[in-house]
Amino acid sequence: MTRITSCRDLGHIPAADYGLPMNDRRVGGALSRSVGFPEPPIRESMGNRFWFVPKDKGGIIPRGSTMRAPYGLEIIESCFNCPHREERLFCNLPPPALKHLEGITGAASYPKGATLFVEGQKPRGVFILCTGRVKLSTSSADGKTLILRVPEEGEILGLAASVSGQPYQATAEVLEPAQANFIARNDFLEFLRAHGEAALRVAQQLSENYHLAINEMRTIGLSHSAAEKFARFLLEQTSENHKGEGKVRLTLTLTHEEIAQMIGSSRETVTRLFSDFKKKQLLQVKGSTVVIQDVATLRRFAED
Q: pLDDT tens digits, residue range 53-70?
């Protein structure tokens, strides 16, 4: 049985490898596996199919199916029925634009460790992150890795590369099971030409990404110590859920190695910083749960 760990693997795996009667189709650069359903037309609407990028095997789930999704995901089969639609910049579009979007979108779920695209790869299209977590990272020639950021749900991944036609500037790897809907580059550009509101939302996200990149450069380049970088990292994790002072609880699913890659440090330094912050009673840590004892004190520590 062949194990799939990235989108690039999909185009090289024969249907027979799954031990299932299925028809191979390639839609938007990924493999669509039709299990027991009629052969779709050559120019099918991507919005009519849902596929999994599996560890072992998978198949298309038609709309309206009650089949349980793998990886414990809550599958969002339609933009119109998405419970988070109004909260997300790109998803909250007028009905005509949403209908067009569904017609060019292929919905897929990915396991932890799957790769959506690779730094330097020619852009095939964009991924709309519906649920789950993905990290964007860049690597040097000597193998050092820097995690640029962890996008929020609802963001479009691979946006700058797909709009400009330049290679992807980062690698997108799934941190926890995720649903990421794919849109081929040509279809996406045609969609933007047809819907000015969607093009404006894309411009807004590109602007937000620019400001996030500047903040990241400021944190890594201008911070005086690893402790300051670490304190700023913790504060960034609280920004969405806690705007005030006092105690705040958060869940960190990143490993010490991944945190180190986000702040430009080493795993050993991050482990030591956790220990130091606990001794100073800035943090309480139990498993993946981190309690910041006083956000105001941590903020002053980050600004020293």
A: 444 433 333 444 434 556
